[in-house]
Amino acid sequence: MMQDEHIPQEDLVLYAMQAMRSHELAAVRVHLDRCAECRQALAEVNGDLALLAVSVDPKPLPEGARERSIARMTSEPSQAAGAGSSVIGIDSKRPARHAAVWIGWLAAAASLLFAFSQEQKVRSLNEQLAQQQQAAAQQAEANARAKQVLDVLTAPTANRVLLTAAKAKPEPSGRAVYLAESGGLVFQASDLAQLAQDKAYELWVIPANGQAPIAAGTFRPDAAGSASVLMPPLPKGVPAKAFGVTIEKAEGSATPTTPIILVGAVPASGE
Ligand SMILES: [Zn+2]
Questions:
Q1: How does pLDDT run across 220-242, given as a tens digit for each residue?
Q2: Beta strands of the chain (E only): which ranges?
Q3: Residue 253: which domain range?
Q4: What does the buried/exposed string (b/e) look like for 247-271 if buried means 16 or more CB atoms within 10 Å of the residue's CB?
Q5: Which residues face 175 on adjacent strands?
Q6: Where's the Anti-sigma K factor RskA C-terminal domain (predicted)?
Q7: What pLDDT was estimated at residue 12?
Q8: Which of 60, 92, 210, 247 has a CB 3.0–4.6 Å from the CB of 80, allowing a cystine?
Q9: Could you say which of 98, 119, 140 is where a domain stops?
């Protein structure tokens, strides 16, 4: 670009978008320093870009900017003549390379759309983060609740009371809560008879599919005859038909030994 020529509009657009190559940049800056006309043209380009920025949606280009751009690019003879010779029209002197200018506008619009979509992405990520934080908070709450339940169930000082029909003689009993999908099992028994030192009670899960009973842990009753088995290691996803308790040797057995001391069937149809 020659020093004494005005800056072509597409270069002004590139300059305003900070998309100009560095070797051209220096020349444009030198010219802008000493040419009020080009500074004015640059101000208009900047104004148009600002208008475009705030009206990306729904209109791709604001009315005023569009008209100004078209007027500037279509160097109408009447406009040039009407301007008179005393004022050097920017339009008449500057070669109007329409395609290049519009490519400049499109590039500007594209970069604005890109910025807009990046902003949307950041917003979407922030929303995801907030959801994850909320889920984590809910999980922490659920964990705290589960711990409270377990604290009560496992506390040595907790009172373990089975309520039965009034005046009924207390019999050994047990209650199993089983979640087949996770293999989670909580078992509590009451009024169990005391056992010899080399013996233990053993809990069994009897699978619904007819396979062999699965050992679910040994236990001995406390002085009051109460005992519990909490979350023994069990396979996941094994629906149970029933639960049973037998008396086995202290270290437990691979298969249950009769007689069955306690037994309970899972109610049909997930009741
Ligand atoms: Zn100039």
A1: 999 989 999 988 999 999 999 99
A2: 173-179, 184-190, 199-207, 214-219, 227-230, 240-249, 260-265
A3: 173-270
A4: bbeeeeeeebeeeebbebebeeeee
A5: 188
A6: 106-259
A7: 86
A8: 92
A9: 119
